[in-house]
Amino acid sequence: MLHHMKKYKTKRLDCWPMMKELRRAHFKHTWEAREKGELVVMGIFEWFLALCAGFGDYANPSYGPYYTVILRDQEKALKCFEVAEAKGFRRDICASMRCHLGQLYMGLTERSPTGQVVKPDFILQPSACYAMSKTGQIFSEELQVPFLNIEFPTKDTRNTRTYVISEMEEAIHWIEKKTGKKFSDEKFIQGVQNEWECMVLWARISELNKTVPAPLDYRQMWSLRIPNITSRHKNETVKFYQILLEEVWDRVANEISANPYETARLFHQFLPPFYALDIFKEPLKYGASFIGGDGAFSSMGAWMIHEDGTWEAAKTPHERGIELKDRTIALEALADLYLAYLPASRGPIWVKPNEIVKMVKDWQVDGVVLMIDRGCKTLSAGQEEQILELKKAGIPRMVYEGSHADYRDFDEVGTLLRLDIILESLGLRKLEELREGAINE
Amino acid sequence: MNCDTVSRGEGGTHIDVRRKILRFKHVRISMDRGQLFKSFQDIVLDRHEYAKRWKAKTQGRVIGYFCTYVPEEIVLAANMLPVRIIGSHQSQSVTDELCSRNKWCAFSRNCLAEGLLGKYDYLDGLVIGASCFHTQQVFASWIKHVPVSYWHSLYIPGYLQGALAEDCLTKEFEEFKESLEAWTGKTIAIEAIDQSIDTYNRSRQLMKEIYALRKSEPPLLSGAEAMEMVLASQVMDKSEHNEMLKQVIAELPSYKSSISPGVRLMVIGSENDDIEIVRDIESLGANIIIDDHCVGSRYFWGEIIPKEDRFRALANRYAQRPPCPTKDFPERRRLDHILNLAKDYHVQAAILILQRFCEPHEYDIPSIEAALKKLNIPTLVIELDIPMSLGQVRNRVESLLEMIRLEP
User: Fold this and answer.
1) Nearest CA of chain B to the CA of A139: how many Å?
2) Pick from A35, A225, B236, B278: CA 20 to 30 A from residue A121's CA?
3) What region does A126 belong to: left with phi over 0, alpha with psi -120 to 50, or beta?
4) For residue B64, what is the enclosing H or E element?
5) pLDDT the model gives residue B98
6) Which CATH number fits domain A16-183: 3.40.50.11890, 3.30.420.40, 3.50.90.10, 3.40.50.300?
7) Whole-model pTM above 0.90?
8) Do A16-183 and A203-440 share a fold?
C-alpha cells in the first residue's frame, strides 16, 4: 500500500535562518536598547506596534524575556507557577500570565542572562483580554512604572473606531510626556505600513497552504509567525515575510511539500500546548500533516471574512488606494486593521458559525483537532459552538483538554492516543506498519 | 443521611434540613415584619410569572439583560421592563455541549440553561453590556439557539478609568436608544429618559438608605433580606419596587430588631444571587451586613448626576460606579470602595465569593485579602459551583466565625 502513496519532494526552508536571526535580535535588543537610548516597553504589546515605532526603535521583552525558555523547562515552569500560586493567583487564571507573574516575583523580569537589570520605561498593554490588563496592573504596581492600557473593542462600529483612534492619540501624548521623547509621524507612518504589510503577507502565506501538498506545516508556521508578533513594524520583518512568501510560492509551483506524504490534512484550532509542540509530529507517522488552523492563521494575519464564512487575505491600505499621508490617516488605518481584519479580536457574538466549515473546505482539511484551554477565556469563547458546527457538518474532529502554557494541565500520552484514534478513524495506518506489511508481502 | 454532607444542585431535589432549622433558631422574624421582605422574596421566586403578568397588563415588551453595566434607564424610558438574566442554581445538562463544566462559571452556564429550557420564553429582546467572555459567549449561544426578535450588544470599555471612556460610553448609550427606537418604531422622548433617571436614582437612594439600617448592631435586616430586595429590583418594575422600598423605610425602624447579634460579615465577589447560601451563612451566627457584588451594593451605588446631555450623565454614572474587576485598572478603585465599606459597616470578617473560573475576580483576590488583612479583617474564599457542597461551606464558615469569637 505504501508504494501507492504519493511521495512529495521536501526541502528545508531557505529563509528559516533569517527567522531565527530576527528572533535572536529581538531578544538581545531588550538588553541593548537602553545603551542606545531607546525605549524599553513592557507588556504583551503585540498590537498597535507602530505606536511605539513612532518614537524610534524600542525593545519589548513582553512581561519577561524568559517566557519561552521557562515553558520548555518543566522544572523552571513549575517554579514560576508555584510562586504565582503562592501569591494567591489561582490555577485557572491564564497560564501564560501565571508564568509571567512567577517571573516577576522571582525577580527575572528585568534581569538579563548576565545579571544586568533593565527597568522598563512603562507598561503598555493593549487589552486583548482582561487577564493581560490585570497582569499589567500588577506589574506596574510591583515594578513602580507607569501603566498605559489601550482598549481593544470586540465590535467594530464608528463609535468604537473613534474610541480606538482617540486612545492612540492619547497614548502618543502620554508617552511623550512620560519619556520626554518626541513622536515622529514619519516613523509612525512607516511602522503602520509595515504592520499592515506583515499581517497581509502572513495571511497570503497561510492561504498558500490551501494547496495540496501544503508547502508548510503547523509547526513551521508556529515558528515563522514569531517575528510577525514581536516586530512587524520593522522594515526587516516586512522583507523577511516578502522573501518567505516568494519561497512558499516557489514551493507551491514546484510541488515541494512540508512533509513527504500527505495522506490527510489536519487543522488545529485554538492555542496549542506551547511546551509540547511535538504532538504535531504524531500525524507524520501516518503520513498526515497539520497544515494550519486559527491559532496559526489568525493570531497575526489580516483577513477579510465574507458573509459565507470565507477567509480571504486582506488588502493593504495601499492596495485599496489609501495612502498614509499623515498621522490621522495612519491612525485610522491602524484602527481599521485591528477592528476589521483581525479575526481573533472579535467577540464571540460576531463570529459567523459557518466560518469553520468553510475553512475546512477551502483548506481541503480532513479532520480538526481542538484544544479546550480553560485558562484562555478569550480565545476559548466560541469553542463549543465551533465543535457543534463541525459535528453538524459531519467533519471528523478530536477535542482534548489542555493548557497552552501549564504542562500540568495537559495529558500528553492521552492526547497522542486520541490523535492516533482520529487518524485511524480517517482510515490511515502508520507508515511503519505499512512498510512492515510491504516487506512481509 | 448526614445533613452535613448533603449537596444541593443536582436536580434541586436535596434540601439540607438542618440548615433550615439552624436558620430559624438564629433569625426570629415576626410575621408582620417578615411580610415587609416576603414580598421581595415572592417576586424573586415568581419572577418569570411576574414578568408575564407585567407584559399582559401593560402590553409592553420585556428585555432580558446580561450584566449590570446595561443602562436599564434607557429600557425603562422605552416603556419596557428590563429583567436581569439569572440562573436557577440547579444542574442542567442542557448546556453540556455549549458550555463545558470544566471551564465555564456556573452562573453563565446556568443562565444559558434557563434560556435553552424556555424559562425566559416571554422575552422580546436581549441586551448585553460586554463584560466577561463567559457572559459574552452565553449571549452568543443564546441568540443563536433561542432566537429573539431583537438583540443588542453594548460595548462597555474595560478601561473605564481612561479619560476617553465616557465619550465612548455616551455614544454607545445613544446608539442603544436609537436601536430600541428602530425596533419599536417609537421615539424615546427626552422627558421619558428624565423620568426614568429619576426613578432609578430614587431606587438607588432608597436601597442605600435601607442598607444603612444594617450598620447598627444587630442590623435591622439580614443579608438574605437585603439580597432579595436588590435581586427583586433587577427583575421587576422599578416604580413598584420603589413603593415597596418606601414601605420598608417607613415601617422597619418601628419594629424591634428581630435579628440576633452575630459576627459582622462582608460578602465580596463575583456575581452571586444564591440566597440560600447567604441564609446558610447567616444561620451559623453571623450577619452579613454589607457587600460588594453585583446583586448588592455594586448594582445601585452611585447616582446619576443630571447633565444637559442625558446620555453623558448616564455614561458618567456607569463609568464612576463601583467597578467590576474587569473594569478596575490601572488604579484599584474597587479596593478603596471595599475598604471604606468595611470601615463604615464595622466589618469583622469578609467572605470572598468566587464563581469558579471567574478570572477577573481571581485576579483581585490577592490584593483584597492583603488590604483587609491590614485592617485585621480575616477573609475566607468560597468557590461557587453547581452542584455545591453546602456542608463543606458551612464547616469553613464555622471555623472562620469561631476564630473571630475567640479573639480577645
Assistant:
1) 10
2) A225
3) beta
4) strand B62-66
5) 87
6) 3.40.50.11890
7) yes
8) yes
